[in-house]
Write a structure and sequence with these properties.
It is an enzyme of class 4 (lyase). Its cofactor is pyridoxal 5'-phosphate. One of its GO terms (molecular function) is L-serine ammonia-lyase activity. One of its GO terms (biological process) is L-serine catabolic process. Belongs to the threonine synthase family. It is a single chain. This protein is α/β, with parallel strands linked by helices and about 425 residues long. The chain has a domain of about 200 residues: 3-Layer(aba) Sandwich (Rossmann fold), CATH 3.40.50. The protein is built from 14 helices and 13 strands. The strands form 3 sheets. A 6-stranded mixed sheet has the order 4-5-13-10-11-12, sandwiched between helices. Strands 8-7-6-9 form a 4-stranded parallel sheet, with helices on both faces. Helix 2 packs across helix 12, helix 3 packs across helix 4 and helix 4 runs parallel beside helix 5. The radius of gyration is 21 Å and the shape is globular.
Length: about 425
Amino acid sequence: MSLTATHTIREGAFGNGTHLSCRACGAKSPLGPFYACMECFGPLEVGYEYPTITREQIEAGPKNIWRYQPLLPVPVDVASYPNTEPGYTRLVDAQNLARELGLRKLWVKDDSGNPTHSFKDRVVASALSATRELGMKVFACPSTGNLANAVAAAAARAGIRSVVFIPHDLERPKVITTAVYGGTLVAVEGNYDDVNKLASEIAGEEEGWAFVNVNVRPYYSEGSKTLAFEIAEQLGWRLPQQIVIPVASGSQLTKIDKGFTELGKLGLVDATDYKVYGAQATGCSPVAQAFRDGHDVVKPVKPDTIAKSLAIGNPADGPYVLDVARRTGGAIEDVSDEEVIEGIQLLARTEGIFGETAGGVTVATLKKLIATGQLDPEAETVIINSGDGLKTLDAVADRVGPKVTIPASYDAFVKAGLQ
């Protein structure tokens, strides 16, 4: 990606961000339209020089992710530009689910409450800011569905052209809830990894195209930190002891870890220990397999699972997910599609939260981690529900429905034994 010929990056475009740093070799690059290290081609992420930041300063901010503007690569006036204002979703005290699973204390961070009903609104808002500051003209992405929704909606709100690429066999609700925003939706024959490869090729050739999770990725991924910030703030400015996070590319997990770490370094929370657990579906579980095998390299797989939002066979952040899980004393596990469906129903039945398949993966993995003794049932635990079950209705469509059909009479009601 390159800047347009007449565009100059303004001072403060990336807030307190000061540079880009290679996650592989540590080499630093200037802030700008760069996403791969010039020394080793490793992935870049944003580095900061933070001023003093107080809890009171954050609490006085808006009830969305921009309350954390000083901790993100966005300008101080970011909220003044049209955006979907995601974030500050509820943290649910999941007493019923905790009781059923034998946990002392469990919270569900329910990100289905975001504008397009998934956590992707967070990362897209951060990417949109970078796209604007870099002078890019097309807002684009390859997506397994949730990101497609978020990009199309954010582009419509901001008045910028969107082009979204999806696998041809994506769930119908996710196709509709992307197309409705009026951008250009392109179905690509193949799976997500095929779509991502095409997006990378286009990003390398077309000037002015910002692919949020490809060539704007350093800024995009920082949006996931706001999950960590909100969890800590909603817990009364402290860190949970354990957290279970769904793994697709792995970026959400690594950035939540980064967010917790930054809060500790800034003195906004006590830097207490916590364990990070990753959740995958067995039909696309390359990171879980690498964890079990003790490998540092993640071997790509061909996805075959109902959890399409997690169906990334070659996850970009896979090695870093392994690092986080091992460093914190956590683990990466996977569960079958049958367990995923049971997880969706369990969360809905106990807490009234209808999660999509990724949420089912997370709940089922939590259950498995408890059963295998990998997760401490006495430790305070948070799980992430990253999206709304209305997007993946097919997963449970043949499992739920009316218990009985009766004539419209009281006698029929009585005969059915429904008193």
